Amino acid sequence: MTQLALVIDLNVCVGCHACVTSCKEWNTSGAAGPMADFNPYGADPTGTFFNRVQTFEVGEYPNTQTVHFPKSCLHCEEPPCVPVCPTGASYKRPEDGIVLVDYDKCIGCKYCSWACPYGARELDEKQRVMKKCTLCVDRIYDANLPPAERKPACVLACPTNARLFGDVHDPDSEVSRAIRERGGYTLMPEWGTQPANHYLPRRRTELAIAPEELERVDNPLKLDGKLPKPAHREPALDDVTSW
Amino acid sequence: MRPAFSVIFLTTLIGAGQGLFVALYLAALGASAGWLPEATHRFHAIGAALAVALTAAGLFASVFHLGRPERGWRAASQWRTSWLSREIIVLPLFTAGAFFYALAHGLASGDADTRFTVALGALTALAALALYVCTGMIYACLKFLQEWATPLTVINYTLLGLASGFTLATAYAAFLAPALAPFFGTGAHGLGAAAFASRAASLARNARLRPKSTPQTAIGIRHPRIVQTSMGMTGGAFNTREFFHGRTAATLRAVRWTFLMLVFPVPAALLAVGLAWEAAAPLAAAFAVQYLGLLAERWFFFAEARHPQNLYYQAVS
To answer: Closest approach of chain A CAs to the CA of B153, in angstroms?
Structure first.
């Protein structure tokens, strides 16, 4: 069984919001209708977004780290938003695990947004239906695109390659390897939602120099670490003979 | 959570309607068994029609909750998994049952065969109780809204609805069947006391709750100090509106004490006075006060719930 998902590397995300804008650009331009903005240049702008980059400060000053944290629908393997939907508009596709909303069936009761602990669903104020990340389902299967571009818009836009896309059920996929080898984890594991999207943790980047990199352990002729002889303060042969 | 007024009116109105029907049906059963004084068919017909009117008003209020009410009929399709869908199926069943019960009593003459109305009333009363369970489970099944995820939610919805229905029945009986008012009044007192016990229990439980989700689990970083500096936008969004009540803790405390007074002791005192003096006005006031209190109770029920998604929306900029 396939479970498509994103793996987001918090170690390299620089918080540029390119994934946010490319997501909005792609998804507001599609056949599913616009992601409406209201009052965009006014005092109190609002609009529908599938993806946001948030920023957290971790630690006590001065030992703080700034963590940029992209958040979109996690396409849970046990999505709590799907069974509560009274109309069947919310569903999880069996073939690739994407959680989708049928905009033609949704009655806009907002119950699924109450049932999502991650706040991944938004009511579009124009279409009056719930919307959320589709994993660019209208893009990843588009045979008219070159195979390299059959990825979600956010993945293609990321300048630091912080977003990986693939099948987390295939143990040999790029995403599965990243999760396995780089400590991938899920959000709010306490609710048993089993999010398909994973995050890769921040890593220490320190210059570490071991002593043996400066001085060989065996040091065969006891040469390493000895100062040149004679020391530069001591008189050399030239000093003795030059008078 | 931001209190949704459409849902507040829906749940309080249908709760009172269901309770009123159950009260009327119990009175009819008691009368047929000879334990209670007989009431006229007209009393039962108008009372059941009142229950229908209350559920219709609740249904009307609920329409304002939907983004696309014209597609509302689709909501009956997912009864296998969704308590909301189950409520939307049971609600019209109850309304139809109460409607035909009213019709049957309205058309019946003095000594007509009552077996049909008794059977119909039994089914409708069952639907009323099932509807309480559905309404409560809509909230109780959301396990990460920890304030709601308890059997007390279902018990509260049931007992508060029944109590308000019995209070309404007492006031109604004072006008058309004064002999039944003591029966309804006793029921309202008993159910009110039970509702107070379960609501106080849920308040005590929720005061001791510790949120399972923390900033640490929300972003998966273990450091004890995590402060959000940006939620990714300067303006608002659905996430910042739907899940925050935007009131101070003092307001919440005031609403809590208001509903605790208006739902339980004040109506109980008014009922006692009205029954003792055999006066209708205090009984009507008891229902009015209790209904206002229930609006505050439902408002508090929503405002009290802390949605874990709020962890992601702690700082503008």
So the answer is: 16
